[in-house]
Amino acid sequence: MAVTKNEHGQTNSINQVRYGCAVGALYSVVSIPGAVPIGHCGPGCMDKQYTSLAFYNGFQGSGYSGGSVSPSVNAGEKEVVFGGEKRLDELIKSTLKIIEGDLFVVLNGCIGELVGDDVGAVVSKYQKQGVPIVYAETGGFKGNNFVGHEIITTAIIDQYVDKYALNKDHREKGLINVWSELPYQNTFWRGDLSELKRILEGAGFRVNILFGGKSAGVEEWKTIPHAQFNLVVSPWLGLKTAKHLEEKYNQPYLHIPVLPIGAQQTAAFIRQVVEYAGIDPATAESFIEQEEQEYYYYLEHFNDFYSEYWWGLPATYAVVGDSTYNLALNKFLVNQLGLIPKRQIITDNAPEKYREAIAQEYQKLAHDVATTVDFVEDGYIVGKLLKETDFGHKPPIIFGTTWERDTVKELKGKIVEVGFPASYEVVLNKSYIGYRGALQLIEKIFTAAISASA
Amino acid sequence: MGKINLRMVEVQNRERRLGTIIAWNGTASDLHTQSGYQRRGSGCKSNKDGCRLCEAKGPFTQGSVCSEQMVECQAGNVRDAVLIQHSPIGCGAGQVPYNSIYRNGLAMRGHKVENIRIINTNLQETDMVFGALGKLKQSIDDAWERYSPKAIFIGTSCPTGIIGEDIESVARKKEEELGIPVIPLFCEGFRSKHWSTGFDATQHGILRQIVKKSTKKQEDLVNVISLWGSDIFTPMFKEFNLRVNYVVDMASVSDLEQLSEAAATVGFCYTLSSYMAAALEQEFGVPEVKAPMPYGFAGTDAWLRELGKVTHREELVEQYIAKEHARVKPKIAELKKKLQGLKGYVATGSAYAHGLIQVLRELDIQVDGSLVFHHDPVYDSGDAREDSLGHLIENYGEVPSFNVSNRQQYQFYGLLQEVKPDFILIRHNGLAPLASKLGIPAAPLGDEHIAIGYEGIVNLGEAILDILAHKKFHDDLKKHAKLPYKQWWLEQKDPYILAKHPELIDAQPTIS
């Protein structure tokens, strides 16, 4: 079959990958405290996802159950020829003996799916014995780790939460389930999710953040049905899960496509959630006031630099990254800093059905600023588009990934690595969102802009 | 031991060729005796499957590494070539680590720093049903259009192996059409139990389709089969009027072409160089330097003398040996004072570990234990001079706790409890994070050339001093980190207990 090229010349080829595969969502499992992934896949699958998503992407680390801890069938010729169910069975049995976990998630990979292993049958035997274990069909050819992430969250909800949650019809006003960034894929997810939780709690909510160090782990997942509503903070990721929960528990959801960065967006975000929830806005308003006081205290001091620095600052920018961060950064850079958008490239293979709505958001970045966005996954085309862009009389600042370093050198611009892979960033609890993250982002941008000036 | 067969498109995997194992528990001398190096080297024709070493394989395994990853880090690192991964996108995730390693390697060797050139064919669910040779052809055309490469490698994947893609015929047609080598490398992860088969797959393809068939010789050229390590060979070889031809990582295609013209081939680790060095000798008459590896005084002396013999530079080599001994011995004496009383542990690939233990013992560091990721009972030449484990035991003595464990962290815990080292030397990821949670610092050897030769003894000593200072960090972490292993497992004295008694997994309650 002949391959057709799209308007940018993109074929099936992908240079410079910008996501993992469905099995890469094993890092969504790793990011839930107490959860342990089990790979029903080849010997290199887990390691590849680890070294790319969790190591050479901010060096986030393997945590409790990632890296070389994660059990794997390491399928060989025998499993390919005779099937791997028996091997998986003994792996699960021995995992339960050796690894301490509150929840085990079996991820079926390419090999298991292609040879037709009935992973569900193997796992259900343990489920019947009361073992906290679920399975997910995450063959790498099914799509990327964004797709895998929602396969896994659905699997945990259907096979674990549904079984173990108490009083599933009980709702608590002011309790929210948050679905936002993709753990590990987004280099700053840990810091970002804790800032998101902090903001929402400051506004008077109780928050199931579900992933990362601020989550109460598997226990927290069991309270998903008790939430007043699901909050999806991303252009598309999480919508599938929210819709699933709506059908399953008759739980409504609020979709806010823009992850808030900076005081303006964050205040708007808080007010929108508060209004939707129908809780008393007094707490939120006093929180906003307090946060703004602190935020603008710093901005006032930053102002000397921003208005008087002699040696020049970039005026134009491009963002290359997944939908969530791309849009969030654009809103902030335009509205808060007054930078000029020149090229925006979304790289997460956002589902076709959401692309029009995402593009619309770029049409209203500010009341007087609109721009267009391209959906591209192939790094070669990304580089080509950036090189074709007219950035004006000064070199631009590029918000991208390690893959953009060569292009940025050619453009004589500056780079801020904001997404997978960020192989020249060490990231612990750094955040670029909300009030506190925005300040860190400003520091990062302008340190990058001036650090090479002499 | 059969001859290397370059007529076959697919490389024969290590377990069949060499009898490679990935799980074993005992002493170094036991493993050596059971490997029967010399008997095998002299031809163990009755045993078609190679070695019959018993493998201590149990029901529990943690994710390791696959052959395709080694193809990415070798074929993907040839400077003016392109590697195509015929696979779903997940295999492409490997582009990220290997890009980082490539970029840093280029910088270390003084080449222009740029992104790795790997293209993924991005196979999807329908391709699994209908096949995807059209996508493979498209990606080859894209590679050609984007980079005008001097060669194109195609790496296979588990899915393409299972659905039976006829990659060879596409490669042959494209090779004719483009006029450059288009080289299929068969590296499905499931095909071999150890990733080192991926080295062989890359080398096999290069030997078949890139290396020149000419009989021209360059008498001062020496092939050095290595990875990304710093350039320690050029200055060393200059003393013998020899030039270095580094392969495979960061070589150009023309460097690979001239492999057949060299006066000799050397390697820093037989795990890596075994296949290519033996094949170059067998098929192109390039002698392989068959000697102990260049680690520690004994190893380096013997290695240099053999190099001198093969390249007819005996006298220059003797002068160099004398000069270097005199130069480094006082430095080493100083280091020994600082390193006194320390216990080390080596956890790396097989032959490399043998070399590192030699260097540690040269520094008077106690080494009671080692974990190697696999064990090849014999290397491809079959020559006893390459018996790296035998050389270690003969010159530097026994290693009482010598274990083969394919990066199985859960076993590493028990091994560390047994040996209680002050530091570990590692190369591949996965083990150091556990050691650090136990308060044991690790010296990661990204630059694989750091411990080679006489200066290597000094280098490694200094690297260990640096890393011991990190102990403060690890000791602090130890107090706060939680291990993911159950108490039942942490209390086991024998890390191989489940391999020896698999019935134990039924004997314990499933949920604690």
Please tell me about this protein's structure:
Chain A is of the alpha/beta class and 454 residues long. Chain A has 3 domains: 22-164, 3-Layer(aba) Sandwich (Rossmann fold); 175-281, Nitrogenase molybdenum iron protein domain (Rossmann fold, 3-Layer(aba) Sandwich); 309-452, Rossmann fold (3-Layer(aba) Sandwich), CATH 3.40.50.1980. Chain A is 45% helix and 14% strand. Chain A has helices at residues 26-30, 45-55, 77-82, 85-98, 110-115, 119-128, 145-164, 189-202, 218-221, 239-249, 262-277, 282-308, 323-335, 352-362, 379-388, 405-411, 434-451, and strands spanning 14-15, 35-40, 103-108, 133-137, 172-179, 206-208, 227-233, 253-256, 316-321, 340-346, 374-375, 397-400, 414-417. In chain A, the strands form 3 sheets. Chain A has a 5-stranded parallel β-sheet, sandwiched between helices. Chain A has a 4-stranded parallel β-sheet with strand order 6-5-7-8, with helices on both faces. A 3-stranded parallel β-sheet of chain A has the order 2-3-4. In chain A, strand 10 (340-346), helix 14 (352-362) and strand 11 (374-375) form a beta-alpha-beta unit. Chain A starts with 13 loop residues before the first strand and ends with a helix. Chain B has 25 helices and 13 strands. Chain B has helices at residues 14-17, 28-35, 37-41, 67-74, 89-92, 95-108, 125-130, 133-147, 158-163, 167-178, 197-209, 233-238, 253-257, 270-284, 296-311, 314-339, 350-362, 388-396, 409-419, 432-437, 453-469, 471-478, 487-490, 497-500, 504-507; strands at residues 23-26, 81-85, 118-120, 151-155, 182-185, 221-226, 243-248, 264-267, 343-348, 366-372, 401-405, 423-426, 442-444. The radius of gyration of chain B is 23 Å and the shape is globular. Chains A and B meet through strand 1, helix 2, helix 3, helix 4 and helix 5 of A and helix 4, helix 5, helix 6, strand 3 and helix 7 of B. Strand 1 of chain A pairs antiparallel with strand 3 of chain B.
Strand content of chain B: 5-15%
- Residue-averaged pLDDT of chain B: 93
What pair of chains forms the biggest interface?
Answer: A-B, 85 and 82 residues
Helix-strand makeup class of chain B: alpha/beta
Radius of gyration of chain A: 22 Å
Biggest sheet architecture of chain A? 5 strands, parallel
> What is the chain-wise order of helices and strands of chain A?
EHEHHHEHHEHEHEHEHEHHEHEHEHEHEH
Give the overall pLDDT of chain A as a whole number. 97
- In DSSP terms (H or I, runs of 4 or more residues), the helix count of chain A works out at 17
What is the CATH homologous superfamily assignment of the largest domain in chain A?
Nitrogenase molybdenum iron protein domain
CATH-wise, what's the superfamily of the domain at 67-210 in chain B? Nitrogenase molybdenum iron protein domain
Oligomeric state as shown = heterodimer
Indicate the CATH architecture of the largest domain in chain A. Answer: 3-Layer(aba) Sandwich
Protein name (chain A): Hydrogenase
GO molecular function (chain A): oxidoreductase activity
Pfam families (chain A): Oxidored_nitro
InterPro entries (chain A): ChlB/BchB/BchZ, Nase/OxRdtase_comp1
